[in-house]
């Protein structure tokens, strides 16, 4: 079996794509090629994982200036042509679009060449690249039931997540513990709000223990603010073992990107989501709303991230173990421990290949 995975840009695209690639290799002995762009994180992660990577030149069309959109539109035919050449040379049995800049040109080239295609869409509302090809792909692997309406032949597979998140057991005893993070680089707005709310939080949630991944930028300021907490607060620039941090937490405050939502579901942890307001198509807000509707999370808009309100929201939730339990059970219903296997099996089916 020969498969191309196209797309990238951020870890939310690339990390699940690598999990799919590894599963294709394991289950089908697949040869895999990645297609990305020069500025995406795939340039670091894909070669490090041992997979070849080829690049197309294409920019953004969403949330950018008119000049950038014009340049991208001008570059797009060349990107499709270059992707088509890569497809001719590699001769894939299937092309899997994982979203991001390179996904659109590669999927369009595959459709023109009548190569089977599979779209992977982890967000509630598909990104621009997947929306372009949604009605024409051979199949789609989605995380949310409501996403299926955008595609034909869609299946709810979930998002590949490290097994360690599924192995987290319900927390028993210990102080009420809050885990705060905003992605590997931190989230400045969340960091600032946490620093502002500490005095209120100490008063409203006595005994609270805080684990906070700040990123590099705000680390020193957060560390200084947490000095008054003594051993009841831990600040990190980056947490290496995130599943272990999840296991210690009763509640998580974080962004609501697709990979984070999938990790929250796998761990069965209640969350306060603060969506990144400038995400493409505001997809983080839509993700957070989907979980809030089923009682699995609370959404706090960044524009309303007042320190006192954040502190009171956290204190209210930590003071209601029954609600936390119900939220954890609700979000665990979205977990998909076999996501990588199911997506790989879909890719093989659309390619007409039996499991090896």
Tell me what you see in this structure:
With 356 residues, the chain is of the alpha/beta class. It has 2 domains: 2-159 and 337-351, Glycogen Phosphorylase B (Rossmann fold, 3-Layer(aba) Sandwich), CATH 3.40.50.2000; 164-332, Glycogen Phosphorylase B (Rossmann fold), CATH 3.40.50. It is built from 14 helices and 13 strands. The protein has helices at 11-28, 42-48, 66-90, 103-112, 128-133, 163-166, 188-204, 219-225, 242-248, 258-267, 283-293, 307-318, 321-332, 339-351, and strands at 2-6, 31-36, 53-55, 94-97, 117-121, 139-142, 154-156, 177-180, 209-213, 233-236, 251-254, 271-273, 297-299. The strands form 2 sheets. A 7-stranded parallel β-sheet has the order 3-2-1-4-5-6-7, with helices on both faces. Helix 1 (11-28) links the parallel strand 1 (2-6) and strand 2 (31-36). The protein is elongated. The relative contact order is 0.13. The model has no long low-confidence stretch (mean pLDDT 91).
Q: Can you tag this structure with a few keywords?
A:
alpha/beta, Rossmann fold, 2 domains, seven-stranded parallel beta sheet, six-stranded parallel beta sheet, 13 strands
């Amino acid at each position: 079996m020969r498969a191309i995975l196209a797309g990238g840009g951020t870890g939310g695209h690339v990390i699940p794509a690598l999990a799919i690639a590894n599963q294709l290799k394991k289950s089908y002995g697949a040869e895999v090629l990645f297609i990305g762009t020069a500025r995406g994180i795939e340039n670091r992660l894909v070669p490090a994982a041992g997979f070849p990577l080829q690049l197309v030149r294409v920019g953004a069309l969403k949330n950018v200036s008119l000049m950038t959109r014009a340049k991208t539109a001008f570059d797009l035919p060349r990107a499709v042509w270059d992707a088509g050449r890569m497809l001719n040379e590699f001769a894939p049995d299937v092309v899997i679009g994982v979203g991001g800049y390179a996904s659109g040109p590669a999927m369009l080239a595959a459709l023109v060449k009548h190569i089977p295609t599979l779209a992977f869409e982890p967000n509630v509302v598909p990104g621009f690249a997947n929306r372009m090809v949604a009605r024409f792909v051979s199949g789609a692997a989605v995380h949310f039931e409501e996403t299926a309406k955008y595609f034909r032949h869609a299946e709810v597979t979930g998002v590949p997540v490290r097994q360690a998140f599924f192995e987290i057991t319900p927390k028993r005893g210990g102080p009420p513990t809050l885990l705060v993070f905003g992605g590997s680089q931190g989230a400045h707005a969340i960091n600032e709000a946490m620093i502002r709310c500490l005095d209120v939080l100490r008063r409203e949630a006595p005994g609270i223990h805080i684990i906070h991944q700040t990123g590099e930028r705000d680390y020193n300021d957060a560390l200084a603010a947490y000095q008054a907490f003594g051993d009841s607060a831990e600040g990190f620039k980056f947490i290496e073992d995130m599943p272990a941090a999840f296991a210690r937490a009763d509640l998580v405050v974080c962004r609501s990107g697709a990979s984070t939502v999938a990790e929250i579901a796998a761990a069965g942890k209640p969350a306060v989501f603060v969506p990144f307001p400038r995400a493409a198509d505001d997809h983080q807000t839509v993700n957070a709303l989907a979980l809030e509707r089923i009682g699995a999370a609370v959404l706090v808009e960044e524009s309303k991230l007042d320190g006192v309100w954040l502190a009171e929201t956290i204190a209210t939730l930590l003071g209601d173990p029954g609600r936390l339990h119900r939220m954890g059970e609700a979000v665990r219903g979205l977990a998909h421990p076999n996501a990588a296997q199911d997506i790989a099996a879909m890719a093989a089916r659309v390619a007409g290949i039996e499991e090896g």
